[in-house]
Records
---
Amino acid sequence: MENHKKALVLVDIQNDFIPGGALAVNRGDEIIPIVNMLQKKFELIVATQDWHPANHKSFASNHPGKKPGEVIDLNGLPQVLWPDHCIQGSVGAEFHKDLQKDKWTAIFQKGKNPEVDSYSGFFDNARRGDTGLGTYLKEKGVDQVYICGLALDYCVKFTALDSKSLGFDTVLVTDATRAVNLNPEDGNLSIQELQNAGVKTLTSDSILNQ
Ligand code: VGL
Ligand code: ZN
């Protein structure tokens, strides 16, 4: 086995992305027991948290006449409009109650600037704001980043792409994520896009059995 320093990054496993939540990801709850088992295999675990002010411009409600799912131009970037979700301090923004949290060493919040969305746990969508996650992992000597969470076609995908671009050997745990699938193939296309970018894909059983 190679001598890697590994980290597990848990992306946005928050109530609003779980069935019953404001931006529910179909079968998003199914990843919770898998993620909890995965956590037993890692010494370094961090989480990201979507954390929006109520006036965030990714919310359709802040654009009169617009509906969730429509795409607008937001300060020069295409922006999918979402239902209000993960509002700072709300129950929807809390991590799922069954998610094990005791081993986490840091939480990186994102999406705080109302003028730009932030799918990646590293940078905002304009790649200007930086959560500090990349510096944190480098300071810990991490070279291999395992990624799971919600949602595959948005925050998980962009977190994995940024991880790879920052030079981390990056692994997506394919059964520990679920997609929004605004278009039914978005999840599958995301996996292809990640593989094309050099992100590796593994299922949890291969990690749990090693
Ligand atoms: C997410 C849409 C909007 C995600 C966050 O966590 O994938 N998706 N905000
Ligand atoms: Zn969001």
---
Amino acid sequence: MGCTALVLAVTGTAPAQAGQRAGAERQVLPAGDGWAAYGAGTTGGAAADRSHVYTVTTWEQFKAALADGGSAPKIIRVRGTIDADGPSCDSFAVPGYDFGAYLAKYAPESWGRATTLDGEPADSPEGLRRASAANQDAYIKAEVPANTTVIGVGKDAGFNGASLQIKGVDNVIVRNLRFESPLDCFPQWDPTDTADGNWNSEYDSAVVYGSAHVWMDHDTFTDGDHPDSTLPYYFGRIYEQHDGELDIVKGADYVTASWNVFEDHDKTILVGNSDSAATAAVDRGHLKVTFHHNLFRNLVERAPRVRFGQVDSYDNHFVAGDGYSYSYGIGMESQLVAEHNAFTLPAGAKAGSILKKWKEAPVTAADNYVNGRHTDLIAVHNAEVPGETLQSGAGWTPALRTRVDPARAVPGLVGHRAGAGRVG
Ligand code: CA
Ligand code: CA
């Protein structure tokens, strides 16, 4: 490392750094700006006193700042790019864990495809994988307390391999940070997931889990140097090491995601993560989320996939690349409103795939443009995808919008102003 001059922790007495707009760290969500403005609104750590303003340059310092001071309002300023992924995957492995032994034991030719590995004992290859995964889990997850603002300083602040947990708390702001997706060092083989089996992985870059009043603004989420195209295959299946970029689950409510870049990823955003009865009981009536002025670039699917929630998605730009599957997933009891968005699709991609119907649920789609042409997303979907008829009319009208830009201005606006490095 050798960075002995880096000093931690201190306080509101430090002057704003070059590139840090005065006061950005104390900004609150503007009134009326999306679902996070509902009720008491979202102020994060704006009211922090001087002893609860931290500047951090390492993962250890960041976790220490999160743990300090309970739910007193706090501001954590992140300087530079912080490695959250540890020295190596090997550093998380427990004694005896051996990936070669794992592959040998669970190969479909020997183990078959009928039984999951869940019943495997602690001293089995799967048991040793579980124990190793628990070490990584404890290291890369960071729990954000209530009444907190986490903000990047300047143009290059962020985390490599972090999994931010906004779990069971109220009033959190996360701004001006670049999140390079975590890589799960120990994906689990599930022989029963699809006919061919699947490697399943954990760790979203950020998850909002049962929390309310969360503002994610001017952040960038990306697979960065580790896109899925670089991942190996075992048992004929991709060794998937990524989970989501931003998942909003388990009764979470009142979230605004504005001016972010979500890019270079497969399964990007879940709003609601299950159709099960237990999940429905928790999610029904919640999962109210606004997405505006985000750039969704080179994603495969889920931008977002919605269950249960009232999601308002307006003034976003979607740029599809190779492997594009769909943008909006229409899931169980969802009520998506998608208006004033711009879509840039490559030759050969069909506008009818922008919406994907998973369950019978109504949608409002108006004033959207595909490759510069006004397009009725529901009509084109119903024309191009036989047997998947979507019904128009989500049954509610978003009231919490501050400014709606014309869809045709959105690519320029978002291209110049979305993502990390612009506000801090
Ligand atoms: Ca590292
Ligand atoms: Ca997830």
